[in-house]
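Posting for a labmate who doesn't have an account.
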Amino acid sequence: MTTATKAKVISGSLGQKFANGIGVSISSQLSHFNSPDYVVFPGFCDVHVHFREPGFSYKETIATGSRAAARGGYTAVCTMPNLNPVPDSAEHLRQQLDLIARTACIHVYPYGAITVGEQGEALADLAAMAPSVAGFSDDGRGVQSDDMMRKAMETAKALGKIIVAHCEVNSLLRGGYIHDGAYARAHGHRGICSESEWGQIARDLELVRETGVSYHVCHISTRESVELIRRAKAEGLDVTCETGPHYLVMDEDDLQEDGRFKMNPPLRSRGDREALIAGLLDGTIDMIATDHAPHSAEEKARGLEKSAFGVVGIETALPVLYTKLVKPGILTLDALVELLAVNPRKRFGLPLGCDYSVWDLNEAYTVDPADFLSKGRASPFTGWTVHGRCLATVCDGRVVYQK
């Protein structure tokens, strides 16, 4: 590209079209980033974040969450509906939309709930919310009733919207809070079995066969989930899925007696992690989403058993994945950009435009949550040495983050 900067633009499927599109913007706004070692990425897109507002602003807000996302190179996110009020009607959704319009510095696309109050008992007003949401999800809770999920899928299909499923069979949880594996047995913890995840995925895939709905599975963590989705895709079902950075670079062998290692689903076995990487490489797993889930310091200071589920990760996703997957040669940089920026937008129909971020991939540093822009500090990557520093992010022609 011909600009005042010599930054390299990532290639891959985006190719020269993206490079040409951002050339003028880089030249006019960020020309002082003139090192030949800087890399320009298309704006990342995270389809699974919790920005906690309205209802839980002590954990995070649209403003703090979107600024944290911008620092991580993200210019678009989809926010989950476990809020107060739950966005289960046009009236309840409007509160979140107003906050987004006033305070977000990047593109924020909310999900509408599948059921009223995410309680699984009555269908939310999907039709009224459809024009304003990225899809429908009861994230944080699996829809337990087959009939309720069938009705939701039929309605979403008629509306041309996607069902985004948190898959979890409540009757199989049995009070567990980490993976039902070697670490749980060795340390006296109650475990969450893998079937609690893949069992509901199997149920949902049968319903997808019946209804033909577009279906996306959140944060898969087990080898069985990968295989079920692999077979569904081979069958031609309209199915995609995501996994999170922590499931790709950590497993139960990395657990410590600390709430920053507690998330749902939990870190699984080494074999599960290896299956996730294989699914990433063969295209079974379509995208990487952080499941950025901030809590207060007090809520995460109660150990593995009693801390709240959820960790933060939107500011560290690219550095962690680049350090642990790209640098060792497991994944190419172009493939990582597809997973973080391109595939999420394709699946959810979200525009890219000329949004981008500028990175120094040579800079090494230690992850320190005290530096985060998010209110959340519970990171499983605390103390890790990573490579890759975001220098600036541009969204809609505006510099929304600059180091």
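Reply:
Got it, the structure tokens are right above this. The two ends are 24 Å apart (CA to CA).
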